[in-house]
From TrEMBL:
Transmembrane segments: none annotated. The gene is ytrE_2. The keyword Transport applies. Residues 262-296 are annotated as: Disordered. GO terms for molecular function: ATP binding; ATP hydrolysis activity; transmembrane transporter activity. It holds the Pfam family ABC_tran. The lineage of its organism: Bacteria, Pseudomonadati, Planctomycetota, Planctomycetia, Isosphaerales. This is ABC transporter ATP-binding protein YtrE. PROSITE patterns: ABC_TRANSPORTER_2. Residues 46-285 form the ABC transporter domain. Gene3D superfamilies: P-loop containing nucleotide triphosphate hydrolases. It comes from Tautonia plasticadhaerens. It comes from the Bacteria. The keyword Signal does not apply.
Length: 296
């Protein structure tokens, strides 16, 4: 291991186990269950019903999503796979409130974000979500440290504290020695790790990651996945990850496949057959299957 993939101590709400999850995967003794309200229920992290999205107008209009329905429970690690152009990034942008669906209903952490005006949607993103974009979206004129620090400053955190936190976050992705460099001086994989650090800066409840390991070698990819899944294990966050990288499939609780504008395959309860590229690689590194079996 090149660097230790553990989240900085300031991140965290204590060890938690999401409702309905398998206790075997949460071996802490001090587990609490944060996702249960007084009536014993919390909304899922994501609930989409028949959502549609297209681009362009008139005869040139292309419908990308044609009725996507899915539900992601709090604390799950869900991967989204599918061919290039199938709409994975579009779906992530809808869930992240960067765009709104043309049809259907979508709630994220219990909030119908399409009902919020753009400024409130931006507040919602800042306060609850962490986004790792496929093309990183780092600020080219800012150092790695300032890119992460900006995410904290936006939350009203003082310069002194944001510097300390950003430094710790960059350490957690193995980039302490590169903190002062701008993105143009960093490798693609280093930019990807800065983007991961920035996404975790706000202690998000839901992390949306678009190909977060695409530019990383196997060792760094594994380390990033340990960092992201630590977030779930220790803080009850939820992860939705778009990926083609079958080296990280063992980290998934559930894998959804998007094809032809719809979710066509899923494991988990009632999910049917596993996506073909997933079958056979879901064994955990120790050889055991992760939480769920395929099929109903
Ligand atoms: N803003 C946009 N305007 C017009 N077309 C768009 C826009 N965003 C996406 N598309 C189109 O929607 C389709 C789906 O794009 P999307 O980026 O969601 O695919 P993807 O599954 O993420 O692909 P990849 O695996 O290559 O990243 C593509 O045909 C793309 O050209
Ligand atoms: Mg994409």
């Amino acid at each position: 291991m090149l660097w230790s993939p553990s989240a900085p101590a300031f991140l965290g709400r204590g060890p938690v186990r999401p409702r309905g999850s398998d206790p075997a995967h949460f071996p802490h003794e001090t587990l609490v269950d944060p996702w249960v309200d007084d009536e014993g229920w919390m909304p899922p992290a994501v609930a989409a019903r028949e959502i549609g999205k297209g681009f362009g107008g008139g005869r040139g209009r292309a419908t990308v999503l044609k009725g996507v329905s899915l539900e992601i429970r709090r604390g799950e690690v869900v991967f989204l796979v599918g061919p290039s152009g199938s709409g994975k990034s579009t779906l992530l942008s809808l869930i992240g409130g960067i765009m709104t669906p043309d049809q259907g209903s979508l709630t994220v952490l219990g909030q119908d974000t399409s009902r919020l005006d753009p400024a409130r949607r931006a507040d919602f993103r800042r306060d609850h979500l962490g986004f790792i974009f496929q093309t990183f979206h780092l600020m080219p004129t800012l150092s790695a440290l300032d890119n992460v620090r900006l995410a904290l400053a936006m939350r009203g955190i003082s310069r002194r504290e944001s510097t300390a936190r950003a430094t710790a976050l960059l350490g957690s992705v193995g980039l302490s020695h590169r903190a002062g460099l701008r993105p143009g001086r960093l490798s693609t994989g280093e930019c990807q790790r800065v983007a991961v650090a920035r996404a975790l800066a706000g202690d998000p409840e839901l992390v949306l990651a678009d190909e977060p390991t695409a530019s990383l070698d196997a060792e760094n990819g594994q380390a990033i996945m340990h960092l992201l899944t630590d977030l779930v294990r220790t803080r009850g966050a939820t992860l939705l990850i778009v990926t083609h990288d079958n080296r990280i499939f063992p980290f998934a609780d559930r894998i959804l496949r998007l094809e032809g504008g719809r979710v066509v395959g899923s494991d988990g309860p009632g999910g049917g057959d596993p996506p073909e590229e997933v079958a056979g690689v879901m064994a955990a590194p120790d050889g055991r299957r992760r939480r769920r079996e395929w099929g109903p």
